[in-house]
Design a protein that fits this description.
Blueprint lengths: L10 E4 L4 H13 L4 E4 L21 E4 L2 E4 L1 H11 L6 E2 L7 H23 L7 H27 L5 E2 H15 L9 H10 L3 H4 L10
Parallel strand pairs: 1-2, 5-6
Antiparallel strand pairs: 1-3, 3-4
């Protein structure tokens, strides 16, 4: 599906190595929305044009007949509206207990912190700021590991959820970018192994895009 022209004008702009992009790609695959995948080649570009017009200079962004959509949550919602396939999707606002709500918060914050650490350079000298960020990331991933089974047990009936999709993308990305070793986080690694068997996950593996 990715890399092919769909003919219906849905274009996803992102990178194959980006966890936020992968969330959108998994939603597109699960929902059966064909799209053209355009790779951003220069993440350090300073003009929104390099990011499909996103002034935040970030990926992913989506173009549909309705307009331009910045960021993974808005993109996933638009993909669900575009979809011919009716899936039971659980969105963040449906997570009405502290456990579920906190899990979503920690996943998204961990994903953002990962971006911060990667942009700073994973071998950068440890400033107090970066040291605190890494400590927060490790504690968050530890919390997610400790609570993942309870979270899954408490989830509403669903075919797909933003929480599990983001959690999967976070867990695989931590290994892929070698930000954290997953060995100490066995429960989380176990969840990721199961989610990885979904065709949508298999169709969207993390990879470094070739420039050009
Ligand atoms: N809130 C955005 C975050 C997007 C984001 O941080 N994307 C990363 C890649 S995974 C990015 O563009 N990083 C480039 C940079 O920070 O300069 C979303 O949910 O999509």
């Amino acid at each position: 599906m990715a890399g092919t022209l769909s003919g219906d004008g849905v274009v996803l702009i992102g990178r194959s190595s980006s966890h936020f992009t992968r969330v959108a790609r998994i939603f597109a695959e699960e929902l059966g929305v064909p799209y053209e995948f355009q790779v951003v080649t220069d993440l350090l570009a300073l003009a929104p044009a390099g990011f499909g017009g996103n002034p935040a200079l970030r990926v992913p962004m989506l173009k549909t007949g309705s307009g331009d959509w910045f960021g993974s949550i808005g993109i996933c919602r638009e993909l669900a509206r575009c979809a011919a396939r009716e899936l039971r999707v659980v969105w963040p606002e449906q997570l009405r207990t502290p456990l579920l709500s906190n899990a979503q918060e920690l996943v998204l914050q961990a994903m953002a912190t990962e971006v911060e650490l990667i942009v700073a350079g994973l071998n950068a000298a440890p400033t107090p700021h970066l040291t605190k960020r890494r400590a927060g990331l490790e504690a968050s991933v530890g919390w997610l590991n400790d609570h993942v089974d309870a979270v899954l047990a408490m989830m509403p009936e669903r075919d797909l959820s933003f929480l599990e999709t983001t959690l999967f993308c976070l867990a695989e990305h931590l290994s892929f970018r070698e930000v954290l070793a997953m060995a100490p986080f066995e429960r989380l690694a176990g969840f990721a192994r199961i989610f990885a068997q979904r065709p949508a996950a298999r169709a969207t593996p993390f990879a470094f895009d070739v420039a050009g």
